[in-house]
Amino acid sequence: MKHVDRHDPATRTWVNDAIRAVEADANRSCDTHLHVFPLPPSWGVDLYLKDESVHPTGSLKHRLARSLFLYGLSNGWIGPSTTIIEASSGSTAVSEAYFARLLGLPFIAVIPATTSPEKREIIEFYGGKCHLVDDPGKIYEESARLAQETGGHYMDQFTYAERATDWRGNNNIAESIYEQMAMERFPVPAWIVVGAGTGGTSATIGRYIRYRRHSTRLCVADPEGSSFYPSWVTGTAHPGKPSRIEGIGRPRVEPSFQPMVIDRMTSVPDATSIAAMRWVNEVTHHQVGASTGTSVAAAMEIIREMRGHGIRGSVVTLICDSSSRYKGTYEQDSWLEKNGIDITPDLADFRALFRR
Ligand SMILES: Cc1ncc(COP(=O)(O)O)c(C=O)c1O
């Protein structure tokens, strides 16, 4: 007989403690709110916003970062001296920098040079380093290269998001939505609308809907130029452009994106996304980011259709992050002008839907 032992008690003790620390972070937090969007009750359609901006690191990506760390720790990929590297449009890197600091690990965010300065500041606040890349399409290979160079671990959210999250439940975002809807007048949403960056959120929600045998349909709202929409529509890969709506829309279809669980995709012009963001901020006083605007715009189109067909029911979408991360961009008229974006007609359309 021959055998080789690789058990390292010190590393195992460290991993045990690291998993406890990540779980303890969740244990200190409560669930995120499900806000009622103030539509006229006579419409017979209710819209809800699940506020993922209230996580400790300010976005939906707190859930993903937690899942990716637990996945990496449980797989033996992350140990006491592993440098963590991630390709991100910013928000995932913010959340991962927070967890890396919690575990005392070095963190490098590989992000497009256009990422908002607000996000870069938070990554550095949590002790992470920002490695800026001019071509956003190069963040993957640059991350893999840095991982090799440092002997670190490339988290690769775009590949692992869909499998790192427990889609059957375990308090994932889908289970939480259905529990929070339980006492509403239309407890099973007719539609859930989300954006896609990795595609992990839509995969989790889409799988959960099927697993629980709900009648809910899933719509993914995609910003202009992204490859998800044309690729989903045609069934063949269509390369896209880097998205101007930070966090969603990708130049390529990411491995985590699960097309078969999606019932509808809506392509939303950037002007419409930003107009919807401004409108949500006026109507609800929740200061949301532009990706939330993309989803709300697609949700409002669904609501118009439901009303047109006399269908009553509920629609749920997400507040992914707060506009405080975009003070210098979507919040600024001068930035819109510089980028040739005119939100005036869309904003007028949204405002005309009802009077506050
Ligand atoms: C509104 C909204 N929905 C969903 C997502 C989903 O991200 P992912 O596909 O990476 O899970 C985002 C990401 O920023 C978002 O802003």
Defining key terms:
single chain; 356 residues; alpha/beta; Rossmann fold; 2 domains; 6-stranded mixed sheet; 4-stranded parallel sheet; 10 strands; binds pyridoxal-5'-phosphate
Folded structure, characterized:
The protein has 356 residues and is of the alpha/beta class. It folds into two domains: 30-59 and 170-355, Rossmann fold (3-Layer(aba) Sandwich), CATH 3.40.50.1100; 61-161, Rossmann fold. Helices cover 43% and strands 15% of the residues. It has helices at 9-27, 61-74, 91-103, 117-125, 139-150, 157-164, 173-181, 200-211, 228-234, 270-284, 290-308, 333-338, 344-353, and strands spanning 34-37, 45-51, 84-87, 107-112, 129-133, 153-154, 191-195, 217-223, 264-268, 313-319. The chain has a six-stranded mixed sheet with strand order 1-2-10-7-8-9, with helices on both faces. Strands 5-4-3-6 form a four-stranded parallel sheet, with helices on both faces. Helix 3 runs parallel beside helix 4 (117-125) and helix 10 crosses helix 11 (290-308). The model has no long low-confidence stretch (mean pLDDT 96). Residues 60, 91, 161, 194-202, 247-248, 291-292, 295, 318, 320 line the site of pyridoxal-5'-phosphate (PLP).
Q: Determine the number of helices (DSSP H or I, runs of at least 4 residues).
A: 13
Bound molecules: pyridoxal-5'-phosphate
pLDDT averaged residue by residue:
96
Q: What is the percent of helical residues?
A: 40-55%
Strand tally, please?
10
